[in-house]
């Protein structure tokens, strides 16, 4: 398994976790902490810190995703042999030429009357 494949698997996992963490949050300030009865001044069992945890985990996962993407970009070309005809500079391909355009006077029959 190449390094790029490992980075690709990690990117998919981190992206999935990032989606889950973002979906748990509520944009109105409720989110997971309000689900446990933390809507007002009553806070039980450290639920008050849930919003901080979700916020920090979002930033951590987003940063990890960017770092993994950049690291995978470095490893994608270090794999060695690239077999692409578009990148091959040794081989020159010639463009096919079109036949010369003819005018109407050349194509009409010039039969004497």
Automatic annotation (TrEMBL):
Residues 79-113 are annotated as: Disordered. Residues 79-95 have a biased composition (Polar residues). It is a multi-pass membrane protein. Keywords: Cell membrane, Membrane, Protein transport, Translocation, Transmembrane, Transmembrane helix, Transport. The keyword Transmembrane applies. The lineage of its organism: Bacteria, Pseudomonadati, Bacteroidota, Flavobacteriia, Flavobacteriales. This is Protein-export membrane protein SecG. Residues 99-113 have a biased composition (Low complexity). Its main location: membrane. One of its GO terms (molecular function) is protein-transporting ATPase activity. It comes from Winogradskyella sediminis. Belongs to the SecG family. One of its GO terms (cellular component) is plasma membrane. The chain crosses the membrane at residues 6-24, 58-76. It comes from the Bacteria. Involved in protein export. Participates in an early event of protein translocation.
């Amino acid at each position: 398994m190449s390094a790029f494949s490992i980075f690709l698997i990690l990117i998919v996992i981190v992206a999935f976790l990032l989606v889950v963490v973002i979906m748990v949050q509520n944009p109105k300030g409720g989110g997971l902490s309000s689900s446990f009865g933390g809507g007002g001044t009553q806070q039980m069992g450290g639920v008050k810190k849930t919003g901080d945890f979700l916020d920090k985990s979002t930033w951590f996962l987003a940063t990890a995703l960017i770092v993994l993407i950049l690291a995978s970009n470095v490893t994608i070309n270090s794999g060695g042999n690239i077999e692409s005809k578009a990148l091959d500079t040794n081989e020159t391909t010639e463009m096919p030429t079109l036949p010369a355009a003819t005018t109407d006077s050349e194509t009409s029959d010039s039969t004497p009357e």
